[in-house]
Amino acid sequence: MKYTLFSFPAAAVAIGLLAGSPASAQVVTNAAQAQSGTYNVEPSHTQVGFSVLHFGFTNYLGVFSNVSGTLTLDTKNPASSKLSVTIPVESVQTTSAKLNDELKGDQWFDAAKFPNATFESTSVRITGRNDAIVTGNLTLHGVTKPETLKVHFIGAGVNALDKKYTTGFEATGTIKRSDFGVKMYVPYVSDDVHLRIAGAFERQD
Fold first, then answer.
1. Any signal peptide, and if so, which residues (predicted)?
2. What phi and psi values does residue 44 have, to the nearest 5 degrees?
3. Is 27 helix (H, G, I), strand (E, B) or coil?
4. pLDDT at position 18, please?
């Protein structure tokens, strides 16, 4: 059975979570208490958000979705954890349908020629109880460059709706799009692209 946002079962779960039900007690907010293992990206709740300064007037936002990939999480030895994700460029969305089409075209991301962006971690450095610096190789528009993300652990536990063990993170970083050959309208549309990523992962073993 599928539930809508305002269906009774979903609402009941939400009220229970707010009230401090057993489901909420299963969520841990200390990264060391999360379960180690192999995780797959949960695409419905994973978003790769980006923003650019548009002609000096606004920080214009967009998002990529339908992300796939794996996380190998080792909470006893976090530095050995690994992340690999694939982002379909065709999924790009803004508030302008015309711009969406332009971004997919050959003057921007050229989704027909370079359908995916990928990130493969190469190192994880712990900087706090729930924080780490993750360095890896980002491939975008056919170009691969090392990039760094600041990653913050949000929480982990059994999802009250689908009963799957889930862990979630937020990551932020900044890249220069010209480094990847995406130079359209620089500097009027900023070269710096700010990333804000919501990552949800479901344990597989």
1. 1-25
2. -65, -25
3. coil
4. 45
